[in-house]
Q: What sequence folds into this?
């Protein structure tokens, strides 16, 4: 099956062409620089950019894959969750393309797609393909700017959300604490970089819900304690080394909670595999700490490749193709977006 997938749930315009589990092309056009001056994603601007970029991005994906549009067998697009006006662009375009080609269309849950991005691997010859043959029941951590989820994936296409954040997402915590330090949006990658030369033990910040017997997260209290700490030590921001220490200390608090709670869920559910994806999974220390903890506790770890941690249409396409192959119902061509579509 050859399938075109579109993803426009937030600030990444992406199109991918997938054939029989192989990602033939995955084109991503990021809007980060556009939103940076506003300190966060502006929904209306995001939608306009998607409108401008979606067809060129889809055409480049088809060209890169060497596939003419009339050779597609199906079309998929992210149906939710996400920013309503942003979702509308990709979802309605996907339906229109499917209608024009008279091919089936399927709407995909963005978070469900994240569950499978760690199974998309790059072979020695550069081929990017889904490695479902290696699939194992797992606990999957999805950490992005909008979400922090722990999901039990008991078998392929069969999952249950165990917990999520009750306030800010982990990426939001990186971004908001970074903003308090005067770092540009999105601050996550900048904190990662500065923390590399900082001391994670320099300052003690709370590890929210670390010892609670549930799979939920809460990061807004951590953000508040960073706010008070900076208010009480304003001179600290003028000292480069202290800023690096602050970055490393905040990062260590977020990561300890993420790693500890993810592995605890894996132990409790008796799975032998842990996976992670979402923008925050690009974080170098998170990747190392997950590797260390999984090695120590003898879990197999599958981290999404960095380019597939952030939003991309390849994961949408891989899941869509798998679903269609396993007989999942197609979506109506007048189906609507689901901006608040929570993963169950
Ligand atoms: O998945 P993503 O690209 O978009 C959504 O939020 O859906 O995730 C973006 C988030 C931002 O909060 C960004 O600061 C964070 O991921 N992020 C990082 C790193 N790279 C991206 N956080 C910490 N360390 C990083 N290296
Ligand atoms: Zn995402």
A:
């Amino acid at each position: 099956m050859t399938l075109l997938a579109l993803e426009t749930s937030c600030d990444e315009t992406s199109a991918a062409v997938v054939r029989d589990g192989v990602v033939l092309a995955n084109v991503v056009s990021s809007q980060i620089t556009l939103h940076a001056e506003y300190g966060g994603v502006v929904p209306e601007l995001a939608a306009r950019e998607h409108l401008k970029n979606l067809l060129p991005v889809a055409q480049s994906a088809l060209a890169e894959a060497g596939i003419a549009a009339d050779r597609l067998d199906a079309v998929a697009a992210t149906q939710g969750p996400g920013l309503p006006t942003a979702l509308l662009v990709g979802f309605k375009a996907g339906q229109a393309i499917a209608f024009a080609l008279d091919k089936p269309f399927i709407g995909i849950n963005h978070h469900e797609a994240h569950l499978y991005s760690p199974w998309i691997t790059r072979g020695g010859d550069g081929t990017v393909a889904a490695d479902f043959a290696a699939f194992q029941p797992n606990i999957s951590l999805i950490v992005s700017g909008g979400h922090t989820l722990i999901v039990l994936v008991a078998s392929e296409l069969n999952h249950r959300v165990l917990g999520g954040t009750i306030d800010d997402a982990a990426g939001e915590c990186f971004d908001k604490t970074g903003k308090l330090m005067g770092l540009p949006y999105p601050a996550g990658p900048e904190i990662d970089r500065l923390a590399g030369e900082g001391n994670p033990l320099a300052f003690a910040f709370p590890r929210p819900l670390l010892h609670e017997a549930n799979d939920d997260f809460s990061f807004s209290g951590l953000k508040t304690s960073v706010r008070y700490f900076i208010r009480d030590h304003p001179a600290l921001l003028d000292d480069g080394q202290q800023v690096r220490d602050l970055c490393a200390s905040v990062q260590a608090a977020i990561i300890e909670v993420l790693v500890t709670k993810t592995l605890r869920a894996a132990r409790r559910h008796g799975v032998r595999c842990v996976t992670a994806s979402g923008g925050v999974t690009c974080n170098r220390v998170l990747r190392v700490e997950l590797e260390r903890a999984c090695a120590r506790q003898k879990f197999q770890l599958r981290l999404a490749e960095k380019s597939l941690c952030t939003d991309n249409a390849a994961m949408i396409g891989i899941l869509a193709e798998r679903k269609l192959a396993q007989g999942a119902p197609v979506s109506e061509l007048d189906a609507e977006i689901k901006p608040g579509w929570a993963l169950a």
Summary: The longest helix spans residues 240-269.
